[in-house]
Design brief:
The complex is a heterotrimer of chains A (294), B (281) and C (423).
Chain A: H1 4-32, E1 35-36, E2 45-46, H2 50-56, H3 59-91, H4 97-105, H5 112-123, H6 129-136, H7 140-143, H8 153-177, H9 182-190, H10 195-206, H11 208-224, H12 227-233, H13 244-252, H14 262-286
Antiparallel strand pairs in A: 1-2
Helix pairs in contact in A: 3-8, 3-11, 4-8, 5-12, 8-12, 11-14, 13-14
Chain B: H1 2-5, H2 7-36, H3 41-46, H4 58-66, H5 69-100, H6 106-115, H7 125-134, H8 141-165, H9 169-177, H10 182-193, H11 195-210, H12 214-219, H13 228-237, H14 239-242, H15 246-278
Helix pairs in contact in B: 4-15, 5-8, 5-11, 5-13, 6-8, 8-11, 9-10, 11-15, 13-15
Chain C: H1 2-23, E1 29-35, H2 42-57, E2 61-67, H3 72-81, E3 88-92, H4 93-98, H5 115-119, E4 137-150, H6 151-156, H7 165-177, E5 181-183, H8 190-205, H9 209-215, H10 225-239, H11 254-260, E6 264-270, H12 273-276, H13 278-281, E7 287-290, E8 304-314, H14 321-331, H15 334-344, H16 360-367, E9 371-374, H17 379-382, H18 384-399, H19 405-422
Parallel strand pairs in C: 1-2, 1-3, 5-6, 8-9
Antiparallel strand pairs in C: 3-8, 4-6, 4-7, 4-8
Helix pairs in contact in C: 2-15, 8-10, 8-18, 10-19, 18-19
Classes of the chains: A mainly alpha (294), B mainly alpha (281), C alpha/beta (423).
Chain lengths: 294, 281, 423
């Protein structure tokens, strides 16, 4: 069917670029995790697995991991719950579907810093939009809450994160759902199936592969997440907002304090990498199912 | 009229309320960003919800000229569009072969590409810079484009594989029986069917690269080679010591968001029409 | 873009040929300067003026500047690995001290600075980051840490500048009675908030007290009464109503904006504050500054200050080290320092060069300084990892009321012991 020559010609450019500019530097970087080095061209000192041992006992790292897990699970449930809800409602024969979909996705095309700044104006104590809004409807008691105080700031960040993620995952899931022939829906509707039943019995099984892809994407993004919480946290980011990738950045790339532990920082990256692989493998195993063809 | 009071009517109203409310909030956000870019800094903090009393168009002039956003705009447009085209040229065939081909090691190779998504980019900063410098590509837009293409491959292939593998195989078989060669099957049958998927990854990559700043921060130094997101980044970092000119920042953000918004509106239409085409059987 | 680049290249080539033709000197040097400023910033424009003035006087020396912005040192790290030639650079002095300087990558400038040149600096500024008596970095912008406040508001509420910490607490009451807050903080900027603690401790035990507490490897120094008293005193700023309760949630720069908006009297922060707030407070805002006041029975003076300097450093492997050293020396000259003040509104390091009007009190504070320490008593320079991952966040938790002062000192004692045991 498909000739060898074509397989080779189609794969070679991608494979070469991938090997040369991603795998090779990544291997070089991984190598650094066995060294103690600042990266300033000093003689790196071989320390074996000592960076890994330190990381295991590093409470800041575990706090970052905890935040990552919260984003993955709590944020994930919220994001996918809403994305499924929107897909379901919009596929139930809403008019203006295209427009709504476009608008829901829209925040994703805007620079993260604008979004985080917007949300910090929403949650800002005293002058913020949420406070003004709550005061306007007479809820002065709740209005005085400091939404961005240390105990709340992570969840404030999560609201904004879920908001943009919902847009992103809704279009991915809907792109899948749109491949389902329209007559299947009509037939089901004629038989009197409810919106939820249609979603459950038709949409969900038909787009199972899309769901798997999006779930894996979400998990990978949750492990690597850096930009949104980092920008939300401002120039001197609070540990309450650390994710592993932010911690990596803080330790290796000299932020406010001149911390230049490049070896240690790399170690965090290696752990993140293996975590991602584990997640991909685990999810592929968990969601192994017959592919639906039509 | 009776349709309105029926259970179905109420349900429909709720649907519109939920979806419409969410969509309206997006509009509110964009409008807020644009309004913020026309305010004075004092207004922005003191009354973030107000309409600017006297629109400060000067914020845009300042950002476009003094902060060189005009130059950055051209750089961004060049780097991003060349990168996206190159990504598609490289990744679409690879994803096709990986999802529809039958050869040994296909699964393994596919996973190998997927693992690239797990690599945290900060790991690559130092090695990539050294590599680029040795190829005399450090601080060039060409170098940045190559890196963008390479680093976007895993994600693009991963998403495209999903789209290709969900395409019906009957069409493929029929084309082969009709005497199409393997390349022709790809070119004339599978590629058009995968249109929506290709459009999706094109948009996602365009948006991602348009707003990307971490890699460009490492690879680009000269102000004349900066991209828009680096321009935004330098406005933000100038807040320390020089002071926050938030209004200009939002003017910058508005400049950055307009092209992606327009592009998305156009392409999302194309995506949807592509999907209906793909449904013909 | 391509044509643009090549056009620039041609122009540059023609230009340099012309220059070489003019001078015909073999000593012609183009110094490569990597800068922490972004091109549109006034500081960059001021430095450009300084360089032009230098080239006018020394036509054989020209400059190629890469305006990197604040991530300069981190970008330089990658560039050094790739062997990119750079002659000199600038960055926050404490970041340099913990970065390039600590790695031994700075060129020793001691021989270039004779006694008269050294004496021209404001007291202690040049020596603060000396390494074993050697001059590795040369400060050219000077920021002091003080309480920055609205002079008009202080007069309106009928308050006076506090001389002791108790006066400060009393002032809080006065301001509160007028319906305003005396102080504001940025909840997410732990390193600003730690300033309260390091200053209080320095007033009790003398300059650099925090460093001494940490360097007791048993961790027991944290459990001394003075340390607990400092933690409790800073926490009492909340109990006494100095800081409004909702300030816990302010994310930089929301807190400082309340000063511009007239809700708050002032903030303990660096002398960059008036510049940072120019856009929202206006250029005629009545800025004043006073030092952290004395505390009861303390040995530290209220003229001991914490400072944030910005320094230039000549790199060890600079292709034109001597020419770069001469220029860095020139940046400290009266002529250059005046340009910096006028064109960018910063405070500078040379004695006798007046700072901009808004920073007048800071100049006095620098001129009369009896001892200088970097931010947070200098702990961040010597032990950056400990400071950024343990001290700052733990202190911030206590300061914002998530843990008690007692818990804070216990944790710090344990963490300090742990830190030294691992070394």
């Amino acid at each position: 069917m498909m000739r060898r020559r074509m397989v080779f010609a189609f794969l070679a450019p991608a494979l070469l670029l991938y090997l040369g500019f991603l795998i090779l530097p990544a291997v070089q970087a991984f190598y650094l995790s066995f060294y103690d080095t600042s990266g300033f061209g000093d003689t790196a000192e071989w320390v074996g697995l000592s960076n890994y041992a330190t990381l295991w006992g590093d409470s800041v790292f575990w706090r970052a991991m905890r935040n990552m897990a919260l984003i993955m699970f709590v944020g994930g449930v919220a994001t996918f719950g809403l994305a499924f809800l929107f897909t379901m409602l919009m596929n139930a024969g809403m008019k203006g579907k295209k427009l709504f979909r476009t608008l829901i996705f829209m925040p994703n095309v805007i620079a993260v810093v604008a979004i985080t700044t917007f949300w910090s104006f929403v949650f800002m104590p005293r002058y913020g939009m949420l406070t003004s809004f709550l005061k306007a409807i007479g809820l002065d008691g709740i209005a005085s809450t400091a939404w961005t105080a240390p105990e709340n700031v992570f969840y404030a960040m999560m609201v904004g994160l879920v908001w943009i993620s919902v847009g992103f995952y809704t279009i991915l899931i809907m792109a899948g759902a749109d491949k389902i022939p329209a007559d299947m829906y009509e037939a089901a509707r004629l038989e009197g199936a409810s919106t939820f039943q249609i979603f459950r019995q038709i949409t969900l099984p038909m787009i199972w592969d899309v769901i798997l892809i999006t779930l894996i994407l979400w998990a990978i993004q949750a492990v690597k997440i850096v930009e949104f919480p980092y920008a939300f946290g401002g120039p001197n980011i609070d540990q309450n907002l650390y994710t592993p990738a932010i911690y990596l950045y803080i330790m290796g790339f000299g932020q406010r304090e001149s911390v230049y532990a490049l070896g240690y920082s790399t170690t965090i990256g290696v752990v993140m990498f293996f975590l991602t692989i584990a997640i991909i493998v685990l999810m592929r195993f968990l969601f192994r199912r017959e592919r639906v063809e039509f | 009229m009776s349709d309105f009071i029926s259970a179905r009517g109420i349900k429909r109203c709720v649907s519109y309320l939920v979806v419409g409310g969410w969509a309206l909030f997006s509009v509110f956000f964009v409008v807020w960003v644009v309004l913020a870019s026309l305010k004075r800094n004092r207004e922005l903090f003191g009354s973030p919800l107000s309409i600017p009393t006297s629109p400060q168009w000067g914020n845009f002039v300042k950002t476009w000229v003094n902060n060189r956003f005009g130059d950055y705009f051209i750089n961004s447009l060049l780097v991003t569009s060349v990168s996206v085209i190159a990504i598609l040229i490289v990744a679409v065939p690879a994803a096709y072969v990986l999802s529809r081909g039958r050869f040994r090691g296909r699964e393994a190779l596919s996973s190998f590409f997927a693992f690239g998504m797990g690599v945290p980019f900060p790991l690559l900063f130092v090695p990539l810079f050294v590599m680029m410098a040795s190829m005399r590509l450090a601080d060039t837009l060409t170098g940045l484009t190559i890196v963008y293409v390479a680093l976007s491959i895993p994600f693009t292939i991963y998403v495209l594989e999903g789209f290709f593998s969900s395409l019906p195989s009957e069409l493929e078989s029929a084309a082969i029986i009709d005497g199409c060669s393997d390349v022709q099957v790809f070119r004339h049958v599978m590629l058009p069917l995968a249109g929506p998927g290709v459009a999706t990854v094109a948009i996602l990559n365009f948006v991602g690269l348009w707003n990307e700043y971490q890699l460009s921060l490492v690879l680009i130094n000269s102000p004349e080679n900066r991209t828009l997101s680096l321009g935004i980044y330098s406005l933000i970092t100038s807040m320390q010591y020089s002071g926050g000119d938030w209004a200009s920042l939002f003017a910058g953000v508005t400049i950055v968001m307009v092209p992606t918004l327009i592009l998305f509106v156009i392409l999302s239409e194309k995506m949807i029409s592509g999907i209906t085409m793909g449904g013909v059987k | 873009m391509l044509s643009n680049t090549s056009r620039q290249a041609i122009v540059a080539a023609v230009f340099s040929l012309g220059l070489a033709g003019n001078t015909g000197a073999a000593t012609a040097a183009e110094l490569v300067f990597w800068s922490m400023w972004n091109e549109p910033e006034p500081q960059a424009a001021a430095l450009r003026q300084v360089m032009d003035a230098y080239t006018a006087a020394n036509p054989e020396t020209t400059f190629k500047v890469v305006w990197n912005g604040r991530q300069n040192q981190t970008k330089l790290r990658a560039a050094l690995q790739a062997g990119t030639p750079v002659d000199f650079m600038d960055q926050d002095s404490d970041q340099l001290a913990g970065g390039l300087q600590k790695e031994g990558l700075g060129h020793d400038l001691s021989a270039d600075f004779d006694q008269a040149t050294r004496d021209a600096f404001l007291p202690g500024a040049l020596e603060l980051f000396n390494a074993d008596g050697k001059i590795i970095q040369v400060p050219y912008v000077y920021n002091t840490v003080n309480f920055w406040y609205n002079k008009d508001m202080l007069a309106e509420v009928g308050g006076t500048v506090p001389a002791t910490f108790d006066d400060l607490l009393a002032l809080c009451g006065t301001v509160k009675a007028a319906g305003k807050s005396a102080l504001v903080i940025e909840g997410n900027v732990a390193f600003y908030n730690v300033l309260y603690f390091s200053h209080y401790l320095a007033r009790e035990n003398g300059a650099g007290a925090l460093g001494k507490v940490f360097e007791d490897k048993s961790g027991d120094s944290w459990k001394t009464p003075a340390v607990l008293a400092a933690a409790k005193a800073t926490r009492s700023l909340w109990d006494q109503g100095c800081i409004a309760e909702d300030a816990r949630g302010f994310q930089y720069p929301a807190g400082q904006q309340t000063i511009a908006l007239g809700d708050t009297l002032g903030e303990l922060v660096g002398s960059w504050l008036p510049t940072e707030l120019t856009e929202s407070a206006g250029t005629d805002f009545p800025w004043g500054a006073f030092n952290f006041p004395a505390v009861k029975d303390g040995v530290g003076k209220s003229t001991d200050i914490e400072v944030g300097l910005l320094s230039m450093m000549v790199l060890k492997d600079a292709p034109n080290a001597q020419e770069a050293a001469d220029f860095v020396k020139y940046v400290g000259s009266e002529e250059a320092q005046k340009i910096l003040v006028e064109a960018s509104g910063v405070g500078v390091t040379r004695k006798g060069v007046a700072w901009p009007a808004a920073l007048a009190d800071a100049y006095t504070s620098a001129e009369q300084a009896t001892a200088l320490s970097p931010f947070g008593g200098g702990l961040g320079v010597a032990y950056p990892e400990f400071t950024s991952t343990i001290l700052n966040p733990e202190y911030n938790m206590m300061f914002l009321g998530q843990t008690t002062p007692e818990e804070f000192v216990e944790t710090m004692a344990a963490k300090t012991k742990e830190y030294w045991a691992a070394q």
